[in-house]
Amino acid sequence: MVSTKYPEIADHGLIGDFQTAALVARDGTIDWFCAPRFDSPSVFAALLDADKGGRCRIAPIGTGYKTRQIYLPDTANLVTRFMTPDGVGEVIDFMPLVQRNTPTPRHRIARLIRVVRGQLRFLLECEPRFDYARRDHDLQLRDSEAVFRSNDQQLALVSDFPLTTAGNDIRGEQTLRAGQGAFVMLDSAPTQELHRPGIGEVEQLLQESTDFWHSWVKRSTYSGRWREMVTRSAITLKLMTYAPTGGLVAAPTAALPEQVGGERNWDYRFTWIRDAAFSVEALLNLGFVDEASAFMVWLYRRLTEGGEGPSGPLKIMYRIDGSSDLTEESLPHLEGYRGSRPVRIGNGAGDQLQLDIYGEMVDALYIAQRKELKAGYEGWRSLLRVFDWLIEHWDQPEEGIWETRGGRRPFVYGRLMSWVALDRAIRMANEDGKPADVNRLAGARDAIYQQISDKGWNPRVRAYSQYYGSDVLDASLLHMPRVNFVVPSDARWIETLRAMRRELVSDSLVYRYNPSASPDGLAGSEGTFSLCTFWYVDALARSGYIEEARLTFEKMLTYANHVGLFAEEIGLTGEQLGNFPQAFTHLALINAAITLNDRLDRDSGISEIVARVEDQIAVSRATLAPVA
Description:
By secondary structure, this protein is of the alpha+beta class. It is built from 14 helices and 28 strands. α6 (356-370) packs parallel to α8 and α8 (412-432) runs antiparallel to α9. The two termini are 45 Å apart.
């Protein structure tokens, strides 16, 4: 039976300070927070166990209220508004920004409470549970200052609420009238650094946060049709960036299920090479050069570390500091989100061989080079070693982009992106005068192209398939026109797109593949993948289906949550599933918006070309013998 103790995954907003983040539910509960980093053990994890996980809640006493949640425009400052017959109040949640790009143990969550009409009596409950609720804590309370300690970790709470103890937890109540305010500050600073602010100082911190975000958003060069959603996606990506290294976490959460009650519950608080590469492209397209440069530095550091493991010169993912200890373990003492078990931390896919990461990385570096962000001497030498390795190893089975645990196969997407890596290597060398064995690179690139054309195309299903010899379709191949492997009007590509429309698309939402037709080693099913839907928009727009692309994009935007955020998947009844929010989804949204906006702004005549190609396909199919 599904538990009703949990909010919907989508019923949250995200706040952060560029080293860690927290989720705030629509009822005023912080039910996820890790410190001092994104990938540190949790302090609040009620999202994974409503009884044991820990939380901090501020809300009116009683149940006779409605809530609304919004971001202050063009900021990451989150407003949760409570409306009752007796009054209207709000809690503004934000994290004062860490002003230096070095790791710090101090992270603060500010909660500013205001009443704008009538009066409300607010209840404060603070129940930290350190180390994923595996450690007990002691409590010291003095006046309106409480300190929770657990071994080497602590959390301080300072407030102008009168505070009382509830076991080793804290409660407080206060009545506020129109025009009155109060505050709660959660602070992970060591005791000697603890500072007690007043409400005026908290309001000043809010203004500083607002000023920062307004200044940052002004740097965007995007002026297209979907500015609000693109800006919200950019802010979300910024919130998920670990400033000391430039690494981007795939999501700030762990173990949120892809199927409620199922076992597909992964830890996404790490930096994937793939995500970092796509972020370079998206942020450069928006004009955020500093952030793109930071990600590039992160990528080059991984390249220059040397060494070779099961996944080649690079691992598919790293911790945000660049280390690679990703040991996966389960937390059996936590019940999981609505009973979704096991609750996993760490990620056992870290040593998988996924050939596509090399193409995504080199393509991002090539895009950056064209924006005058070029590799230095050591960076280029490291890239040459990657090219040499890929030439020798591209033609082998692998686990693929979706990190399946059903064994290695010759995935077409891995071959496609290997082709991209070698093609961009040639372009980088030629355009920037860098030394490289261009003839050797070209020979391997052309061999991959021919192999994909011969073995990746399945004449039975009239489409490029997931892996050689398979009849299964895969949404990752929507990248084919984006990376210029196929001409968007090519007959084979149009047939592939049509086949995906028939088999992977459900009311504009796109599945990544059919797991029942292509077993991935895991039990259960999954929803449609939101990033795949945005890839579909991009592919439709490039292939001349402009109006269909626009309709699909607009429909997809309606699945965002109340503050414009997306998780990884959309379930059968429209609910968001998986870790939240997901960086890859927001990256894909940005790129799809840019591509679609560009196609809408110019009349290239592609639609007419596609119509002619479809006529030719119809004639060709009419002459084909029936397939047994």
